[in-house]
Amino acid sequence: MKVAPRQAASFLSSVPPAIRAVLLHGNDLGLMSERGRQLASQYSDDPDDVFSVTRLEGEQLAGDAGALGDAAEAIAMTASCRLVVVKGRGSEMLAACKIALTRNLADSFIVIEATETTTRHALVKLFETSDNAAAIGCYADGAADIANLLRETMTRDGITIADDAKALVVTRLGSDRSASRQEIEKLALLAGPGGSLDFETVSEALGDSATLAVTDIAMAAADGQVAVLERSLNKAWAEQQASVMVLRGCQGYFKQLLAAARAVRSGTSSQQAVKSLRPPVHFRLQDRLVSQLRHWSPDTILEAVNRLQDAELAVKTGAADDQAQCSQTLLGICLRGRALNGRAARG
């Protein structure tokens, strides 16, 4: 069974009885972990109960394909259901999952978290096409997802938040569900029940967050400001920001810039193209994007996006030192931006 993104919430709140195994796959590790805990809580009152909960690593299954099925069929000593939780990359679990899904899973439930799969992966296809299993993609939240999360939290605590502050939160968050929820909960705690939040308060509260510093990094790269980029990256590493989050955040920024550049190529003015972006860009940042559109073309922006995506893949596969790979990629884009800017000034 394939669970579409719009169906994920309802599915997770009430898993069909016929489904005895769920695969969580994608690149948002925070969302994957959150959904894994939500599933586990439905089949175990105590996730640390070693007599009824079995935890396995993908590498264990690579050397023993029958281990997953054996664990699922083991009798739960202190509960009515045996919960089996597996975390791994993906491919190393394929054979074990094929075997497990043919076993008697009436008194068990399997949760698989696979961090290195795509929608075309054989493991994902296995769960999508099995009658007793389901696959749920866990990918970075879009603007609507962040807006919903923000609205739910603010409504819960009776907090009012200014429109420009909402736009700032939506623009800055989204690379990781867990990090996004933490930042929004921090804002709710800052405002207090029945309180209010304006742009300045939100900007200051989130300004030191590792999750939110990416905009400064992306803007420095797009402007061709090498020294500013270096300072921003050093700040991110000092705050232990994950390089994958930096790369994804910069991808989001350049994708917005790409959308605006394509609109300009179609005849829209730079100012209107930036104002029309979704999620909206705060008015204090719009002039920077308009300026960048003078020297970044759709083709050169797409090149930057591709470089960022390649860097993220290299980091996730362990092919390179993550901070070095991230820094080198962004420096290359920054130097490209500086050259384009200089060419535009001369032309």
Describe this protein's structure.
The chain is an alpha/beta fold. It has three domains: 2-138, Rossmann fold (3-Layer(aba) Sandwich), CATH 3.40.50; 143-207, Helicase, Ruva Protein, domain 3 (Orthogonal Bundle); 214-346, Zinc Finger, Delta Prime, domain 3, CATH 1.20.272. The protein is built from 17 helices and eight strands. The N and C termini lie far apart (56 Å). The model has no long low-confidence stretch (mean pLDDT 88).
The helix/strand order is EHEHEHHEHEHEHEHHEHHHHHHHH
CATH topology grouping of the largest domain: Rossmann fold
At CATH level 2, the architecture of the largest domain is 3-Layer(aba) Sandwich
Largest sheet: 6 strands, parallel
Annotate the secondary structure layout.
Layout lengths: L1 E2 L4 H6 L7 E6 L2 H15 L9 E5 H6 L3 H7 L8 E7 L5 H7 L7 E7 L7 H8 L3 E6 L4 H14 L3 E2 L1 H10 L4 H15 L4 E2 L1 H9 L6 H10 L2 H13 L4 H23 L4 H6 L7 H10 L5 H19 L5 H25 L1
Parallel strand pairs: 1-6, 2-5, 2-6, 3-4, 4-5, 7-8
Helix pairs in contact: 4-5, 7-8, 7-9, 8-10, 11-12, 11-13, 11-17, 12-17, 13-16, 16-17
Short key terms for the protein model shown above:
globular, 347 residues, Zinc Finger, Delta Prime, domain 3, Helicase, Ruva Protein, domain 3, 11% strand, 3 domains, alpha/beta, six-stranded parallel sheet
Short description:
The chain is of the alpha/beta class.
